[in-house]
Amino acid sequence: MDRPLYGLVEAGGTKFVLGVARGPEEVIATTRIPTTSPAETIPAMCDWLASHGPLAAVGLATFGPVEVDPAAPQWGHILGTPKPGWSNTDLAGPLAQRLGCPVGLDTDVTAAALAEYRWGAGQGQPSVLYFTIGTGVGGGAVIGGNPLAGLSHPEMGHFHLPLHPADAGFAGTCPYHGTCLEGLASGPAIKARYGLSLSELPADHIGHEVIAWYLAHAVIAAQAMFEPGRIVLGGGVMGTPGLIERVRREADRIGNGYFRGKAAEIVVLPGLGDRSGLLGALALAQMAIS
């Protein structure tokens, strides 16, 4: 008897990555559709998945903020977002209605943390945190196999941290908090200072030190709060050569030997590469019927 077939949605601000799979090593088909308006993108998403059905469940790993409380009236809705036209958009409802199956939902970063915990760099660990460092900065956590959520999903990109001395006077780029982690270490924040992406800067440019310093502070904060077995750093900024090594060295320096986990051992790149988000959707789909 065939294993269940799952629909996968990794909903991003610029594109939706869709797939159908029976397991992490049996992804049968994938496609990408641009994130335009809800009126265009949502029907296209549903049409593609319906053409590959019937599906046992769909996993929806989405950009946020999104309502993740299944008891809330707006469960599955994108909440207030700067992306034009998407605030208060119902993403999960149309999937459930069109496909007639359960929908598992969480943020894209929490889903990525779940995939890394199950099948990637976090296998065998009691807890895993995943940070994406790209156009924005987000984070998700899996503790004892369960995604972390409270009143809402975590917003790890929006905590405040001290300014690097080279950043004196920099106001940050976050429209809500200025110099939060996202406002200091995201791709747009890097370009706002230096006019180039981090990977385009010369190897001896101060920007490499500055961004590694901020990310190291994020690592130390995560260790202090969770002492995770793995801290996975993903996203486009982490493709910069040498960055993860800088983060590890700086985190160990700041930590000063206090924490059990050493950054050189626990701070890693995604074990699943660019598949973390889509396989996170698979994990959410499996949880929806477990």
Summarize the structure.
The protein is α/β, with parallel strands linked by helices and 290 residues long. Helix content is 33%, strand content 20%. The longest helix is centred in the C-terminal third of the chain and has 21 residues, at 206-226.
Structural class: alpha/beta
Helicity, as a percent range: 25-40%
Question: Helix tally?
Answer: 9
Overall outline? globular
Ends apart, CA distance between termini? 18 Å
Largest sheet: 5 strands, mixed
Identify low-pLDDT runs.
Answer: none
Strand order of the largest sheet: 3-2-1-4-5
> What series of H and E elements makes up the topology?
EEEHEHEHEEEHHHEHHEH
What does this structure look like?
- This protein is of the alpha/beta class and 290 residues long.
- 33% of the residues lie in helices and 20% in strands.
- The strands form two sheets. The protein has a five-stranded mixed β-sheet. The chain has a five-stranded mixed β-sheet with strand order 8-7-6-9-10, with helices on both faces.
Q: Features of this protein?
A:
290 residues, five-stranded mixed beta sheet
Spell out the blueprint of helices and strands:
Layout: E1 6-11, E2 15-23, E3 26-34, H1 38-50, E4 57-62, H2 92-99, E5 103-107, H3 108-119, E6 127-133, E7 137-143, E8 146-147, H4 181-185, H5 187-194, H6 206-226, E9 230-234, H7 243-255, H8 263-266, E10 267-268, H9 276-288
Parallel strand pairs: 1-4, 4-5, 6-9, 9-10
Antiparallel strand pairs: 1-2, 2-3, 6-7, 7-8
Helix pairs in contact: 1-2, 3-9, 6-7
